[in-house]
Write the structure tokens for this entry.
Amino acid sequence: MTKPVTNHSHTPADVGNVHQATELLSFTIDPSTARIVKIEGLTADGVRRELTDEEKARLMKRRGERTIERIVERAFEAGIACVIDGESNEEETTDSSEDVDLTHRLLAPLIEQSAAKRLIARDVVDRTVLDTLIEHSVTSSHAPTAGEKTADDLR
């Protein structure tokens, strides 16, 4: 499954750091378990190659705090704030890594004892990602949406 590179907050140089010749990422996913079996780089001429450990580390660094688990934590936090304050704060905040860590340490035990625990279980996250990717690939047009860039745009 290949997907255009989406650039929400990273410059083209960030993507270029993964590998000069890598245009797209290709994931091989076992549909029965929803687990990623392999991640490869795909060059403009269609050649697939395994990513090096260094390239994988760079990809991990790029992700920052944008994980499904973190989104569930943020939603849980917003729910608590709404109950306590009676308001919803929809502003996108940029928390420091210390704030993120503190929030995680405070929310993790609460989430662990709630129905939200199941939402961040690895098998649920994997299945959700796969189902979402399938849905997006089937229902989306091939033209990039606002804020989405293809590999050609990032050169």
